[in-house]
Write a structure and sequence with these properties.
This protein is of the alpha/beta class. The chain has a single domain (4-176), classed as Flavodoxin domain (Rossmann fold, 3-Layer(aba) Sandwich). The chain has helices at 17-31, 55-58, 66-76, 93-101, 130-140, 165-176; strands spanning 4-9, 35-40, 79-85, 114-120, 147-154. It has a five-stranded parallel sheet with strand order 2-1-3-4-5, with helices on both faces. Helix 1 (17-31) links the parallel strand 1 and strand 2. It is globular. The termini are close together. The mean pLDDT is 97.
Length: 178
């Protein structure tokens, strides 16, 4: 059964390692017969959440920027895959900002069930991605119908294009298994 898959690349660097992982995941999901939409946060305007909680009544954030459209795409997707560089053992700031700004989804009739995470870090150890995994698990815990369905930890990749062929293959296979 075909699913609506949203792949969100949160790196601001062009052709980053996490972008490459995201592309491979998307390709795998497409080849498995799913409808895939890819979004990059590069060039998007995302303000910080103000914590006003008006979004819970309005159904969307009261601040007008790109976060509302992306949150709408998240709400409609059955599967969401986030790709992030690892900065200081945590998800990128722009990914965290997007998660905060997607607070309107908490009270919404969201469709997503399976959430995936792809990380790229300069550190080679898998534990370098523990922070992003834990942070995303905290967000997912607020959505009773959702679960973390898979993770690719792409360590040892600093300069663009350094991500290993093995990690790219893992991301592709994870996409195929959606």
């Amino acid at each position: 059964m075909s699913k609506n898959v949203l792949v969100i690349s949160t790196s601001l660097r062009s052709d980053s390692n996490s972008d490459l992982l995201a592309r491979q995941f998307a390709q795998g999901a497409r080849e498995a017969g799913h409808e895939v939409e890819s979004v990059s946060l590069r060039g998007k305007q995302l303000q910080f959440c103000r914590g006003c909680l008006a979004c819970l009544k309005a159904g969307k954030c009261v601040m007008e920027d790109d976060a509302n459209a992306i949150a709408g795409q998240m709400r409609a997707a059955q599967v969401i895959c986030f790709a992030t560089p690892v900065y200081y053992y945590e998800m990128s700031g722009q990914m965290k900002t997007l998660l905060d700004r997607a607070n309107s989804l908490y009270a919404a009739d969201y469709r997503f069930r399976d959430i995936y995470l792809l990380t790229a870090s300069a550190e080679g150890e898998d534990s370098a991605s523990d922070g992003p995994v834990h942070g995303l698990e905290g967000w997912i815990a607020c959505f009773a119908k959702a679960r973390l369905a898979g993770v690719v930890r792409g360590g040892g990749a600093s300069a663009p294009g350094e991500i290993s062929a093995q990690k790219l293959a893992e991301a592709y296979e994870l996409g195929r298994r959606v």
